[in-house]
Amino acid sequence: MKIRQVLFVNLRRIEREGMESLLAARRLGYEVVLLGRSLPDFAAPLVTDFHQVDTYDTELALAAANELASKYDIAGVPSFTEIDVQLAAAIAAQLGLPGMSATAALRARNKFEMKNALRDLDGVLPEFRRVRTLAELRRAVDQIGFPAVIKPTGASGSKGVFELRRPEDVEPALEQLERIASPQFDAVFRQFGAEFIVEEYLDGTEFSVEGMVAAGQVHVVAVTDKITSVPYHLEVDHRMPAAMGAETLAGVTVTTGRIVTALGFDNCAFHLEAKWGPKGMRFIEVAARPAGDYIASHLIPLATGVDYFADLIRIAVGEAPVLQPDRALHAGLRFVLADGPGRFDGVDGVAAVAGDPGYPHLFFEHPPGTAIALPPENFGQQRVAAVVARHATRAGLDALLDAVPGKVTARMDAPPPRRSAPAPAPAPAPATLRTPTLDGMSNR
User: Fold this and answer.
1) DSSP 3-state helix, strand, coil percentages of the chain (rounded to 5)?
2) CB within 8 Å of 12: residues ≥ 6 apart
3) What pTM did the predictor assign?
4) Is 257 exposed, middle or buried (0-12, 13-18, 19+ CB in 10 A)?
5) Which residues fall in a coiled-coil region (predicted)?
6) Domains by residue range for the chain, with CATH
């Protein structure tokens, strides 16, 4: 039988997630041709052909996709990464394959366009405004009130999320965001730049909904409880299935379907973030790709047995997803955080988890020797390791994950002191720049 190919546009940032996506294609009998900025060493044996291209250059990338399509029998273009949602949709349309519309892909990538498309969903959205200048931000906060949250419209991975709790926070937060929302800080900002959305702060317990849409049908696969850090909203803890009652879960499922359908999502995975509070479910945002932080790649298979990445590839080639759970376990993870800047030298406590079958995985986020900076200087380095746990009960899972901070800690060498002229005394730090702690509250 002739082997067909699926076209991947880049791989996920976390190598173990990228590996799982490649293995999923192989399990289904497809070869992978890769269009991207680089070919990681771990991926080379699993990729049939690699075409290097700047995938931020849409015209160039579409031409490269056409070239690959002339050489291979491409069956689908699954979208695994946040920054490539629009490009993957454009390639699928160009090749006549299942994918998202250009309008839906834009809504998936731009947080203002997303919420603007949902204005008619009563009781679901926070108050929000798009801002680009300090004057616009001040007007928006006057209308929305404190507390509020501001973030770039095109960011991913919790980059540049700032709380505004008092008037003194407004100008420092925008100064930080104008520094962050540039291609020099992160290439993701080549797409929408220094455009921001300010929103009403939402009270409640945060969760995410993991699912996919196939031929217009919305499938909810799992709901995940999450904990994030304050004030920068780094995701530090995930537990599934979420500890919510059957009636709440039913409401979440219905509202999720309304949101995803209104946005026009189709032939894609989705990762929706929301809060449950005094007003019920309130929407934060939704991505048209699988959840990161090992949720889609490891936690869903551990907890449910669903081969999530394989089902995403099935959807991309026009087949129905299987989505049949074969187990009902509880799975989660806890990130190990660096408690200060410096050089990461590894983690203490590996033996404490390696010998316990309740902890199937411990992943390093950075190799030892990495220089670590903390938010707001860097939003991707404070999480230095991840410990995955599973158990037959939620109470058992909670006990395993709650024990992680006492078992596994980051080993850091403090940065050497600077030998320079004394700097002027800094102004008092606003609330948005305080030392991160853990909390269950976030608007990303």
Assistant:
1) 30, 25, 40
2) 18, 21, 80, 81, 292, 297
3) 0.90
4) middle
5) none
6) 5-97 (3.40.50.20), 127-201 (3.30.1490.20), 202-416+427-444 (3.30.470.20)
